[in-house]
Write a structure and sequence with these properties.
Length: 219
């Protein structure tokens, strides 16, 4: 059955920016989704900001197969799958929740694209080598005050490479704005309001930073 082009209805998938997105009633998703809901796992949540992130990424013209992309908190995997399929970029999707990575793998397989997955928390990411990545993406990742110092340190390490980019989407969490202000004091950061009516009514912001070579000297 062909995926629908609307979200509501009994169908189990729909098309968004060329990606077949899966609903909780999809046969490959439903058993794990029910178990996630029962356990309270964040892997059961469809984060609306991920749609905002993909919609914004679709406007960019400087992503190519040469990009090495790292997604923080991939959730159901929409953004990583989109970047891999649309641009042919090499993508690593990370999340601390194994259930989210399971759904990421299903979504990338459904869309016949390859996304590498790693189960990593923000503290784990502080220990890995970021030198191979030149695009960092994420949506709704500012979920607790304790994560802000970890995120700032991660982004500062990432910025020392120079010539790299950061794109984060959020529906307007105060912690997200705090992160944006902190980055703006050091880098040329742009905060853009964004909105969607499909597949869900959603409003929020995208924080976009293009790190310059000079930033590498300030790290």
């Amino acid at each position: 059955m062909e995926p629908a082009r609307v979200l509501k209805g009994a169908h189990d998938s729909f098309v968004f920016h060329g990606i077949e997105a899966l609903k909780p009633n999809h046969p490959s998703v439903a058993p794990r989704h029910r178990a996630n809901v029962d356990s309270g796992s964040t892997g059961s949540v469809l984060w609306h900001a991920s749609y905002l992130l993909v919609d914004y990424l679709a406007t960019l013209r400087n992503i190519s197969p040469a990009n090495q992309v790292l997604e923080l908190g991939c959730g159901w995997g929409l953004a990583s799958t989109y970047v891999s399929k649309r641009f042919g970029a090499r993508v690593t999707a990370t999340d601390c929740d194994a259930n989210a990575l399971y759904l990421q793998n299903i979504l990338s397989a459904t869309n016949r694209t390859r996304v590498h997955t790693r189960q990593l928390s923000f503290s784990d990411l502080a220990e890995i080598d970021l030198s191979g990545f030149n695009l960092l993406i994420g949506s709704e990742i500012c979920y607790a005050p304790s994560t802000l110092p970890q995120l700032e340190n991660l982004i500062h390490r990432f910025a020392t490479q120079g010539g790299a980019s950061l794109v984060l989407a959020d529906r307007g969490n105060d912690l997200f704005f705090r992160l944006g202000r902190a980055l703006s004091r050091r880098y040329r950061a742009r905060l853009t309001p964004v909105s969607l009516s499909f597949p869900v009514p959603a409003r929020g912001y995208v924080l976009h930073v293009e790190f310059e070579c000079g930033d590498a000297q300030s790290g």
